[in-house]
Amino acid sequence: MDDLKNRLAWERRLQRRKRRRAEYRRGLRPFAIASWNTTKEHNIGSLVRTAHAVAAEEVVLVGDREWNVEAARTAQLYTTVTQVAGLEAFREHLAVRRWNLVAVELDPRAVNLFEAEYPERPCFLLGAEVGGVPEALLAQSRLIVQIPQWGLVPSLNVAVAGSIVVYDYLAKQRRMGRLARPEGGLLEPYGDEAVED
After folding, report:
1. Mean pLDDT value across residues 128-149
2. Which residues lie closer than 8 Å to 14 by C-beta, 6 or more apart?
3. Residue 185 burial by Cβ neighbours in a 10 Å radius (0-12, 13-18, 19+)
4. Under a CB-based contact definition with an 8 Å cutoff, are residues 87 and 134 in contact?
5. Other CB atoms closer than 10 Å to residue 25's CB: what's the count?
6. Distance of alpha carbon 181 from alpha carbon 175, whole angstroms
7. Three-state DSSP class for 185?
8. 49, 70, 86, 126: most buried, per Cβ within 10 A?
9. Residue 142 to residue 25: CA distance in whole angstroms
């Protein structure tokens, strides 16, 4: 009897998770966050968590790196994480998904974050902790954004930089009247998809 009860409870939890994921996916926003050969595993997990919080369509990991699922705090269960091998695979993925590349980098060509005007369907690319974004991708970018800094350390943690840029993008979308659900939350359930708590 206990086995049956436990199995039925488990099946209900799985069905609820499936419904919640479907509701979440209906409200995804048309942008992506990408990371180029990030070596700090917790940074990737934190980016996945941010991507989930803002309902980004996907996270793209470029390079053969492991990442810390623990830092994602279960966001990886609901967020599409795509891994591509290198430069050409990443370029192909951008083209297939119709993403416009926005590099986040300290670079003389960069636009100050406060002045940035983002393209439609941006894919925000964050560079490796050492070496940054490759020149080939900087040259291909529709926009290069630099986060202004006033401290003595000339860079930010990759996960922090990604979060800052994504929320700047969303704030600008809101000011232009293009941000649905600015207060957060899921889309309202409809029909048979209503979630029972």
Report:
1. 95
2. none
3. exposed
4. yes
5. 15
6. 13
7. coil
8. 126
9. 27
